[in-house]
C-alpha cells in the first residue's frame, strides 16, 4: 500500500467541533432507556422465574475475549497507519487508540478521531484522518460481510416466512464485489461516496482526501483481518450470554450476527453517544428470538457494562503496561 499526499487544509482539521442538539440527544437516549426499562418491568415475573446461571468462568472468558477484540481493533488501525507510511511505534498506536476511544461517549461519534489528531503528534494529520476513515470503512464492510456470512444460521422460523430473505446474502456479496474495491482504493474519486456525502451536504469532504493507492491484495488481507475481529467479538458476546444462561453452541453464529448488527446500527445512530440505548435495543430484539424477551433485555443492558469494563481494562493496560507518554 502506497500513499501520496497533497495539501490538506489544516485549519479544517484543527477547527473546534461544537456539541449541538444536546436536548435532542438526551430525549432520544432517555426514551430508548425508558422503553427498555418498560420491557423489563412488564416481563419481571418471567425474569424473576428464569433460571439464571451466573458462571464466573464463562464471564472471565468473555472479558478476556472482548479485550482481545479491542486489541485487534487497535492493532488494525496501527497496520493501516504503517501501510500509509506513518513512522510510529505499535505500542504507541495501541495506547493512543484506547485513550481516544473513551471520548466515544461524547455525542457525535467524532471525538475519538479528534483525539487521534491531537495524540498522534509527529504524524501528518492527512495520514491520521485517512487511516481513521479507512479503518472505519473496512470495519463496517467486514461487519456487513460477517453478518451475511452467518445469515443462514438465523432461526428458520424468522426467515421461513420470507423466502426472499435467502437471496439477501448472495446479492449483498455480488454488490460488494463490484462496489467495495473502488470505495476503498479510490475513496477520493468514487461516485457512490460522492452521492452519499451529497445527501448529507458533505460532498466537499472528498476534495480534502489526498490521492492514495491501495493494492487489492493488501485490501483483501485487511478486510479478512477485520472479519476475524467480528468473529472474535461475537465469540466474546456468546461467552457473556453463556455466563447468564446455558445456551447451546448453536447460538454462537447468532451471537456474532447480533453483536455485529447492533454495533453497526448503533454507530449509524449518530446522535447517541457510544450508541448507548440503540445497541441494547437492537440486541434485545434479536436476542429475543433465542431467549425470553425480558431476559434478552437484561442481558443486553448488562452487556453495556461488560463492554465498558473491557474498554477501561484496555485503557488500564495502556497506561500501566505500555506506559507510553501521551
Question: Which helices and strands, and how do they pair?
Answer:
Elements lengths: L1 E2 L6 H5 L7 H21 L1 H6 L6 H28 L6 H12 L9 H9 L5 H25 L6 H4 L8 H18 L5 H9 L12 E2 L2 H29 L7 H17 L9 H10 L5 H30 L4
Antiparallel strand pairs: 1-2
What characteristic shape results from the CA principal axes?
A: globular
Helix-strand string: EHHHHHHHHHHEHHHH
Low-pLDDT residue intervals, each spanning 5 or more residues: 1-20
Task: Walk across the major sheet and give the strand order.
Answer: 1-2
Radius of gyration, in angstroms, nearest whole number: 20 Å
> Can you count the beta strands?
2
Task: Report the β-strand fraction as a percent range.
Answer: under 5%
Structure write-up:
This protein is mostly helical and 326 residues long. The chain has a domain at 53-145 and 208-322. The chain is 68% helix and 1% strand. The chain contains 14 helices and 2 strands, in the order βααααααααααβαααα. α12 (252-268) runs antiparallel to α13 (278-287). It is globular and about 60 Å long. Residues 1-20 have low confidence and may be disordered.
